[in-house]
Write a structure and sequence with these properties.
By secondary structure, the protein is an alpha/beta fold. The chain has helices spanning 71-80, 84-87, 91-103, 143-156, 191-204, 222-239; strands spanning 7-11, 30-34, 46-48, 67-69, 107-111, 160-163. It has a 6-stranded parallel beta sheet with strand order 4-3-2-1-5-6.
Length: 242
């Protein structure tokens, strides 16, 4: 444990996810896998997947220590931090907000979550899959800004966000070797500035109690959403550790 609270690995399905296959479990207190990432290693603790994740791609069996987290758990968690429109409706961010709400971690460490999709070659560790974050969705206009928002809100919970990948990434989190992540500290967030951005989100009123919203944003103020993304980016750049 890190200061009595867990260091959690959040493992996605990017091509570099296989790097984590041989990492000692002792480097982490918990391993949360997203969708197909359960195939990378068998000692994961929690798998997070959406309701449309095909049954034949889910783990065929669970150990006594393993469990799944689905929409009934992650939708309320993400809503507690502003909802899908503002947080970004990718499974990486969804899993992270669930971890933040349910586990009160000291560190959230991401691998296989770079959300970079080449036009040729493998997009996932298992080959070529559907790049979920590249769908036409109002919540995904700026993936990096969503990472800035996550890091700043996590800092308000005294949690550090780090990227264990060394590849190009949409995540703005500081890079960190996996064997050193317990030394990570949250960015020095300006909590007053964070509260002002959250107030602007609340004023727009784009709440999604059931997690469902119009992905086209037809009835939303796109300029206001873009301004919020810019605000999160700017604030994170000012407060992120060197």
């Amino acid at each position: 444990m890190t200061e009595g609270r867990p260091a959690v690995l959040i493992l996605g399905s990017g091509p570099n996810a296989v790097t984590a296959a041989t990492w000692p479990k002792a480097w982490f207190d918990e391993i949360v896998v997203i969708n197909n990432a359960w195939r990378v290693r068998d000692d994961w603790d929690v798998i997070v997947f959406p309701e449309d994740f095909p049954p034949d791609r889910r783990p065929p069996r669970f150990s006594a220590e393993q469990r799944s987290v689905e929409a009934d758990a992650f939708v309320p968690a993400q809503n507690a931090f502003g909802g899908f429109v503002f947080a970004g409706a990718t499974m990486a961010y969804t899993a992270a907000y669930w971890v933040l709400a349910a586990r009160a971690p000291a560190v959230m460490a991401f691998m296989g979550c770079d959300m970079m999709y080449p036009k040729t070659g493998p997009t996932h560790f298992y080959g070529t899959g559907a790049p979920d974050p590249l769908r036409d969705d109002v919540s995904l206009r700026d993936l990096a800004a969503k990472s800035a928002r996550l890091a700043l809100l996590a800092a308000g919970e005294d949690c550090a966000c780090v990227n264990l990948s060394s590849d190009p990434s949409s995540l703005l989190f500081p890079r960190c070797p996996p064997d050193c992540l317990r030394a990570a500290r949250p960015c020095a967030a300006d909590h007053t500035a964070v509260a002002k951005l959250r107030a602007k989100e609340d004023a727009l009123g784009y709440v999604t109690p059931d997690g469902r919203y119009d992905p086209t944003g037809a009835c939303m103020d796109i300029a206001a959403l873009d301004a919020l993304d810019s605000g999160w980016r700017t604030l994170f750049a000012q407060t992120a550790p060197a």
